[in-house]
Every structure is written in structure tokens, then in C-alpha cells.
Amino acid sequence: QVQLVESGGGLVQAGGSLRLSCAASGRTFSSYDMGWFRQTPGKEREFVGAIGWSSSITSYADSVKGRFTISRDNAKNTVYLQMNSLKPEDTAVYYCAGRVTNSFRRFSRRDDYAYWGQGTQVTVSS
Prior knowledge:
Helix content is about 0%, strand content about 50%. By secondary structure, the chain is mainly β. A hairpin with a 6-residue loop joins β4 (about 30-40) and β5.
């Protein structure tokens, strides 16, 4: 079992930056791929990006590529989402998620993630 707790959300002006953190419990964190998803009211939860267990592989949605960066520190059981050049359309609840590592499946497959955090609100004002 893995429990995930996000932090770092808040209100920021367009063009600003935020860094989200996701702290994981459990001894097997390093064997999980970790993803970030986001959701706005009335819409499905969408893929933002993900990082493989060894940090050697990352994947990003086109909408955030070049602006967001995912990293992880397995010694601290934490994954990060650095968000730069934020836009109002980035406003959403952001969730971190974990799945047992699987290099044969795309990171963006939401149903592959068995573990989810409670979410943290990010609001970008124009």
C-alpha cells in the first residue's frame, strides 16, 4: 500500500511558478512510476506528466511540455512537479498518482494508477 499526500498548491499570477510536492508512505516507493494529473469541474481528470521509477524516463502532456518538470527523490519518497510560466488554463486540482512500474504501458493511462492523493488546488489568475 502506498499513501500519497500532495502539497504546494495555491494562488499565483499568470507567468508565475509553483512547485507541488507529493509525499509517499511505504517502503516500495522506488518501484513505482509516479504521475501527475489534474481536473477541473465538469471535466475528466487529465494527464499532466509522469516519471519512471528510476527518473530516467519522463513524459508530459503537450499542453505543459517545456513549462512543467517532474522529478523525484526516492530517498525522501517524494515526487515534485515544478510548474513555470503558469497560465490561467492551468487552474485545476492537481493529483499525484502511483502505479507499479511498467515500461510497456503509456504513462498517460489513468486507469493504470492504483494509488491517488487527495489533490491540491492550483489557481492561476490572469
